[in-house]
Every structure is written in C-alpha cells, then in structure tokens.
Here is the input.
Amino acid sequence: MLTLHDDPISGNGFKIRLLLAFMGTPYHYNAYDILKGETHTPEFLSTINPGGRIPVLELDDGRRLVESNAVLTYLAEGTSWIPSDPFTKAQMMSWLFWEQYSHEPNIATLRFWKHLPELSDVQKAQLLSKRSAGEAALALMEMQLSHTDWLVGNGPTLADIALYAYTHVAEEGDYDLSSYPAVQAWISRIAALPNYVSITDKDRD
Amino acid sequence: MLTLHDDPISGNGFKIRLLLAFMGTPYHYNAYDILKGETHTPEFLSTINPGGRIPVLELDDGRRLVESNAVLTYLAEGTSWIPSDPFTKAQMMSWLFWEQYSHEPNIATLRFWKHLPELSDVQKAQLLSKRSAGEAALALMEMQLSHTDWLVGNGPTLADIALYAYTHVAEEGDYDLSSYPAVQAWISRIAALPNYVSITDKDRD
Here is the structure.
C-alpha cells in the first residue's frame, strides 16, 4: 500500500490526499509536525527525504517521490485527471508550474507565517511584495475562471486540485476571497465533487 | 513553424532553445528586452501573454503555451528526453518542479539582479537568504551527481536541460561552482552533447 509522509497543515500534502480520495485509493498516513522540526531529524533526513520536506509518497517497494505536483502526475497517469489531448495536458502542466512559482510562495507562505511565533526581519521585509504577488495570482485565476468552469478543458484536472489546495484556505493568510467571485464559485464546484475530503481531515486533534 | 517569444538573457528561454536544438526542430525567434519593459506593453499583454512573461511558445495555429518547464514537457512528449518508465519519469518531474521552487528563485534571481541598476530594500533584505538557499540547491545537485552521470536514469532528460540552464551561468550571480565538482563535470557532459547551442547564441549584439 502507498504511504504518504505529510504534515496535516500542508496544502502541498492536501493536494495528494485530495487526489487519492477522488481516486478512491487507500494509503497509510504518517504525520510529522514541521513546526516541531520533525522533518529535520537525522532519521527523517536519512530515511525519508534528505531535502527535509514533506509531502513524500512512498511506494509499496520503498521507493519515494518528492514534490507534490510531481506526485500528482505520477498517481494520475492514465486517468481523466490528466487530459489526453496534448495541448490541454500542456496547459495543465503550465498551471502546475505556475502554482509552484507564482502562487504557493505568496499565498501558502503568508498562511504558513501566521503559524510562526514571530517573523524574522527578512520575512517582514517581504510581507508587502508577497501580498501583492499573491493578489496578482488570484487575479489571474479569476480572469480564467470567469470564462471557464475549470482551469483547463471541460472538467476537473490536476490543475484544479493543485491550485485549490492553498487557494481555498487563502483567507488563513488574510487574503479576502470575496474580491474573486469566480474563484469562489470554482472552490464550491470542487468541494461538491464526489469523494471530496477536507484539508482538516487528517488533523491530529 | 513554431515561434518562441523570449529574451536572449533568459535561462528559462534557453531551456527551450536548447531542447529545440537537441531535437533539430527549426523555429522563429522573437526577442523582447525584459529590462526595457517590452513584455509589459499593452500589445504584449493582449496578444502574447497576459502574465507579462517570457518565454512563450506559439504553435503554427497561434495557440500559445507559457511556463518553460511545461513547454519542455509538451515538446519532448514521445521522445527519449522524457523517460518511458513511469517512476523515472516522475523523478524527472520532481526535478522540474524543484527547479522552479528551490533553484530558479535563488540562482536565477541573483544573476538577474546583477543586471538591475540598483536593488530595492526588499531585494537587499533577501540577498543572504537567497544566497544560502541557492547554495543548498547546488549542494543537493552535487549529492545526486556525485553518484550518477545524469539527474535521473541512464541518459540526459528534461531534468538535465531544465537544471542546466541557470546552473551553468550561476557564476554570473556570484556562485562559486568550484565547490561543486560533480556539478561542473555534469555541465561539461551536457555541453558536449550533439547539437548543443550556447545561451548567448541568440544575443542581439
């Protein structure tokens, strides 16, 4: 059986949990607390991921994969979560890379920083530019989603799962989603899909 | 024929130029100067990319694709630049996402900032943390490449092209590659591949 090494607060981990739920694939769940340094212990670094990050997908045979969006493409190969048309598939890939470069470092990071006891000077210096870049990312999604129900093609794909993960909890980083009505409608559309699970489903409490 | 909208100094653009050269695929080249704002003109935003970024690949029929690594996966579909084994392919995808999240924002950015007349306070505040994250990225590559000739599998893949682009010019951002001998050997290996072109091949001067 698959094992997911993850922290329940992670949106990157939630992408994988959500896809596995939609696909009806069972898996073991190993939880680590990033804020307690549990992904930087000598044991984690030597046996799970030398990069010190979650999520990590471990296969039956012990091989491991890192990078949430790469794990999504691996798990979804051959399913309708990846469009069969080459151009539509490439558009989906564009959203996945854009998510890691232009969305996650701004929207996920401001949410994560709310969990820290205090911000460093370097973090404080970036607050305004990250907020502005996060708003630009939401505006680009709004532009797309005011024309189409899903980010690419005619149905939900990995692009929707990957972008949903941190967008639907953006308000935890003080983003106001009421300015993005098409994004809000898309969030409701995803949450209504069969087998949907919530990001708090794996919380330890 | 394909058209690549690009700035010759862009390592993200160079990834695509290098793959097209390796594949022997001809293409039109439209050059823009980022530093002169040529990717933020009303015309560029309305006809090339509303995101205001290069590179953009334009197909024969006018459809356009953004995000350099997504363009690579589109162009290389069905070739040996993408491993056929599903797990090896997923490892390649991990490197592509890692490049955009952990490598490019540190190694490419410090190179790009050298081209600016002066740095903003926010940029100055990030110099040390970006340098440190860039060194960590190079160290992770060194760890892999001291065991294997290529980042994944037994031959060059898109992972090597994507990581090569900004790594081989990292010294322009004041990174010292002499501390990373396995990375240096890998750089020489890529530059020796048939049909290799250099990053300055499209310079306007």
